Amino acid sequence: SPGQVCVCTKQQGFQQQVVALSSSKCQELANHYLGFKGWSSRILTLQNVSGMDGEAKEVGKTSQRPSVKFLCAMEVTVPSHGVCSRGVALGEADLQGTEGPLEFLTATRRAQKLAVGKALSSSFQKILLVVLESGKVAVEYISCQEEPTDLLTEEELKGLIEV
């Protein structure tokens, strides 16, 4: 049936800062509108990338705290609507105080959890849920530009991240 559509014109001088939803809020919304079995997520790769950047070697950066960094690539799928989206994120946790094995393990887990959460949120940022008054839900994949992570196979993605 016909519906009413309102179009908003772009306003000058108004800049909106987009803040991504947390991974827990994304999961809560997906469970509410799609159901617990209406969507799924899986980790494509989770890699330790600590010490692979040259930031600590830059001039002027001294006494930088040691940290653990993990890179995560994740895929969110909505099979009933044929939508699949990938997200990539970096999680970092500083080592606090002594650098014993327990502290390293705790920081590693913190960095992994942060990377997975950010990657899940990044995946959901490209999924649009349209909820109609009747309760029906439509799911669309949206992206400003073609995301290279969405076009690569899983094996190509793992190779790309390792480099």
TrEMBL record:
Domain DM1, by residue range, is 21-128
Stored SUPFAM superfamilies: dsRNA-binding domain-like
Q: This protein's superkingdom?
A: Eukaryota
Q: Which GO terms describe its cellular component?
A: nucleolus
Q: Which Pfam families does the UniProt record give?
A: DSRM_RDM1
InterPro entries reported for this sequence: DSRM_RDM1, Rad52_Rad59_Rad22_sf, RDM1
**GO BP annotations listed:** DNA recombination; double-strand break repair
- Quote the protein name from its UniProt record: RDM1 protein
**Species this chain originates from:** Semnornis frantzii
